[in-house]
Amino acid sequence: MQSHGSLAETPLRSLLESAQGERSTGTLTVRDGSGESAALYFLFGHLFHAESNGKAGDDAVISALAWTNGDFDFDAKAKLPADETVKAGIPDLVHAADAEPKPTQPKAAAARRLPRLRPRARRPSAANMRRSETNPQQKLKRRSTLRNRVVA
What is the pTM of this model? Predict the structure, then answer.
């Protein structure tokens, strides 16, 4: 596993898979471009603890997987914590990160992509039609039309 590098060149997903495949032990520290950081702890390739900006465990890993810019360092000699907060496996964490909603788009851009819907034409309800039928012949005509629909 690389000891340091850029997330633009090597995404966190690849780093996690590499640490697991190489059965690495140590601490992977990831920093995004805006000052956030995450510490991911591995023991023989098993990701067992993670903490990031007040989050811990699976949530910390999932939020860090969204970072595309920044850098990382791997320290194979770092002291490992006793906490075990990561419960899911790496494939499950990657899948959960992919399922996370993406940041919202500006309203103008989103509006351009949505199809324009026409309002549905409203049909008068039977109750409203009965109220509007004041002429007895209209009532009879309406009843015969309804009977024909039921029979047909």
Answer: 0.63
pLDDT value at residue 39: 92
Position 66 scores a pLDDT of 86
Residues 6+ positions from 59 with CB-CB distance below 8 Å: none
Q: Could you tell me if 87 and 143 lie in one domain?
A: no
- Helices 12-21 and 90-99, packing angle to 10 deg: 170
Domains identified in the chain, total number: 2
Do the domain assignments include residue 115? no
Scan for tokens 């964490």, then name that residue.
Answer: 93
**Cα–Cα distance, 105 to 3 (Å, whole number):** 35
Task: Name the residue range of residue 73's domain.
Answer: 4-100
Instruction: Give the per-residue pLDDT at 51.
Output: 92
